[in-house]
Amino acid sequence: MDERDWLILKELFAKKNITKTAQSLYISQPTLTKRIQQMEKEYDVSIINRGARGVEFTPQGEYLAKCAEEMIARFQSIKETVLNMEDEVSGTLRLGVSNYIATHKLPHMLKLFQEHFPNVNYKVTTGWSQEVFNQVYHRDVQIGIVRGEYEWPESKLLLFEENICIVSKEEINLENLPSYPRIDYETDTLLLQIIDNWWSRSYSHPPLIGMEVDKGVTCKEMVINGLGYGILPSTLIEEEEGLFRVNLTDKNGAPIVRKTWMLFHEETLKLKSVSEFVRFVERIDFIK
């Protein structure tokens, strides 16, 4: 069995559906079925049974599927080690990046890195910071960039800090903030906790939610158009002029900030592509 076979088993075990698995791997259903039959012939066992509810794995098939993740990681490690034997910095850099950073910061940074190391390829996955943290923790990615504080026992690099602020089109009286319409948006759990903790410490009444939107960028646009106020990270509004803004502060009057970190396992620095990327990020002004 080769790496592709193990990937098929992993995806099929997760989806329990031939059609969906073939679509996710960009292969035809007949090809997928043939590969499974070849695996069954190689091990001389039945791996799956097809039933009314879809694909069901036999005990032998379930065991092989559970080995798939380990085998895929092993193949990846072998590739990276072989490529790392060369003096040239090459290979695939696997990055997990929070949504905002992936959209607004990462493209320019990778462009600069590519100019120095043109033979490096990239696999970038995006999501909420908690999802990215889980990816780097489980070594699905080599480097994770997250916003907020996570318990991380290994190497990390502080990229920047940002204030959390109240933002509105017109000046508002903070004492009467609970009576103003607020624009809420989906974001990571840690930022929600920061906002909720500040609110419960500052006001005895819940906020008046006038609108709910999908993300912070959308909230910002609604604020610009005078549809309510938002509580947003400062980097999201740094280029916007003419907005009323007040930084949130803790009980001692100090600004409440959110930090963005780059997380990685120390052992991954043995790979030239990872070590060069970490050194590169240490040298640049990430906030630009």
UniProtKB/TrEMBL annotation:
Keywords for this protein: DNA-binding, Transcription, Transcription regulation
Boundaries of every HTH lysR-type domain copy: 1-58
Molecular function GO labels: DNA-binding transcription factor activity; transcription cis-regulatory region binding
Entries under Pfam families matching the protein: HTH_1, LysR_substrate
Family affiliation: Belongs to the LysR transcriptional regulatory family.
Protein name per the record: LysR family transcriptional regulator
